[in-house]
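Here is one chain, start to finish.
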Amino acid sequence: MGKPQIAGELSDRQDQVAQLICNGRTNREIALELGISKRTVENHINYICFKLKVENKSDIPSAMQQSLTSH
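Its structure:
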């Protein structure tokens, strides 16, 4: 079976981006590591924020932590 979905049903790629944000990576670093454009990273961040019901990128780590501890 696949890994459990966390935090508002993030896709695998959104989860990767969120984890990298939690590890303190910049958008540019995330883009380079995942082989995608910086704009694509920004799009993923927008969807992650929507799904996690947070205002901005800096709120993602705490929302991810809350999601993990509530399951």
